[in-house]
Specification:
It is a single chain. This protein is an alpha+beta fold. It folds into 2 domains: 98 residues, 2-Layer Sandwich (Pseudouridine synthase), CATH 3.30.2350; 135 residues, TruD, insertion domain (Pseudouridine synthase). The strands form 3 sheets. Strands 1, 2, 3, 4, 5, 6, 13 and 14 form an 8-stranded mixed β-sheet that branches. A 4-stranded antiparallel β-sheet has the order 9-8-10-11. It has a two-stranded antiparallel ribbon with strand order 7-12. It is globular, with a radius of gyration of 21 Å.
Length: 331
C-alpha cells in the first residue's frame, strides 16, 4: 500500500536531491549537566553518516565503537550537526582530531553516555528547486494545514535501504528461523524495515478510512499521554479522550510488532492484527501516528525558482515525509 496523505489531491512538482547544500539538519539536544565522566562533542559533518562518524572517531581514539554514544542516526548526503559522547578520559586526545568533513565545534561534560532518543527533535533547512512561482500559494496552504492538523508519521524511504523488497523477504526468513544474520547492525536494520513496513501500511489504511482532514479514533486504540509518559487503552473513545487528542495532550500510536509491546484491544486490534507478526522475537515498540512540525518558515528566490523550507520535527520523524506530503507523491 502506498503512503496516503490527507487534505491534498493534486500533485506539486519540484526537484529535490539530498546533498550537503540542500539538506541541512541540526539535532536539538537534551539539556546536558556540564559535569560528569562523559565528554559531549557537538559535531558538524558533511557527507558522513553517523556510522562513518563513529568509526572515524573510534579509530582515532583507538577505542571500541560502543564506547561512543549517539542520540540518533543522521543521513549521509547532507550537512548535519549532531551530538555524540565519549568517555572523559579521551578529552585531551580528541582535541587533536582533524578531518576535512568532520568538525568538532563545541564540547561539554555530561553525567551519562548519550543514548538513542536523547534529543528533543531536529531542525531542518531544505532547498527545493524548480519550484513554479504559481505553485507557491498551494505549497504554503499545505504547510499551514500540516502545521495545524499534523502529518502522518510514516517512516521515510531511508528506513528501508535500496533493496526494500529483498530486506523484507530476509526479515521473514529471520523470523521463521531460516536465516541467521550474525552482524547485529545488519540484523537490526532488516528487522526495523519489516516492522516499519507494517506500520506504514497500517497508518495509510487508517488515514484512508478516516473523514478527510481528520484521524478517526477507534475503541481500543493505544494512546500515549505526554504528561504521565505512559500508554493507555480506553475501551471507548469518550468525549474527554477526543478532547485530549484534539488538544494534543495525548497521541494516537501505531504498532511496531515484536515482543513486550503494548497492543491495541477491541475494534482497534482487529485492524492492527493485520499488520502484526506474533512470531517476531525482537523487541516491539509503538510510534506516534501523527506529528506536528513547528516553526515553519519559507523563503522563495524567484530568479532561481528555489524555495527554502525551515522547520522543526520531533525525534524520529522524517523531513522527507513532509516533502512528500507537500508534493502528494512518494519521493
Amino acid at each position: 500500500m502506498q503512503r496516503y496523505y490527507p487534505n491534498v489531491t493534486s500533485k506539486v512538482d519540484f526537484h529535490f536531491v539530498q546533498n550537503e547544500d540542500d539538506f541541512i539538519v541540526e539535532e536539538q539536544p537534551i539539556r546536558f549537566k556540564n559535569q560528569g565522566n562523559f565528554l559531549v562533542l557537538k559535531v558538524v559533518k558533511k557527507n558522513q553518516n553517523t556510522w562513518d562518524l563513529i568509526e572515524k572517531i573510534a579509530n582515532f581514539l583507538q577505542c571500541y565503537p560502543n564506547e561512543i554514544g549517539y542520540a540518533g542516526l543522521k543521513d549521509k548526503h547532507a550537512t548535519t550537526t549532531q551530538y555524540i559522547s565519549i568517555p572523559k578520559k579521551y578529552a585531551k586526545d580528541i582535541k587533536k582530531y582533524k578531518h576535512n568533513r568532520i568538525k568538532i565545534v563545541d564540547t561539554c561534560l555530561h553525567n551519562e553516555k548519550i543514548s538513542i532518543g536523547d534529543l528533543k527533535g531536529n531542525k531542518f533547512i531544505i532547498n527545493l528547486h524548480e519550484v513554479d512561482f504559481n505553485k507557491l500559494n498551494v505549497i504554503e496552504k499545505r504547510l499551514k494545514l500540516i502545521s495545524k492538523n499534523g502529518m502522518p508519521n510514516y517512516f521515510g524511504f531511508q528506513r528501508f535501504g535500496n533493496d526494500k523488497e529483498e530486506n523484507l523477504e530476509k526479515a521473514k526468513k529471520i523470523i521463521n528461523g531460516e536465516l541467521i544474520v550474525k552482524e547485529r547492525k545488519i540484523h537490526k536494520m532488516i528487522i526495523s524495515a519489516y516492522q516499519s513496513d507494517f506500520f506504514n501500511r497500517w497508518l495509510a489504511g487508517r488515514f484512508k478510512t478516516s473523514p478527510e482532514g481528520t484521524f478517526k479514533l477507534i475503541d481500543g486504540d493505544v494512546f500515549y499521554d505526554f504528561k504521565s509518559k505512559k500508554y493507555f487503552t480506553p475501551n471507548n473513545i469518550t468525549k474527554k479522550v477526543q478532547e485530549e487528542f484534539d488538544k494534543k495532550n495525548i497521541s494516537i500510536t501505531g504498532l511496531l510488532c515484536g515482543r513486550k509491546v503494548f497492543r491495541a484491544i477491541g475494534k482497534a486490534r482487529k485492524i492492527e492484527e493485520k499488520y502484526d507478526d506474533m512470531f517476531m522475537q525482537d523487541k516491539g515498540y509503538r510510534r506516534d501516528a501523527i506529528v506536528y512540525p513547528k516553526n515553519i518558515f519559507t523563503k522563495y528566490n524567484k530568479e532561481e525558482e528555489k524555495l527554502t523550507l525551515e522547520f522543526e520535527l520531533p525525534k524520529g520523524a522524517y523531513a522527507t515525509v513532509l516533502l512528500e506530503h507537500i508534493a502528494n507523491k512518494e519521493l
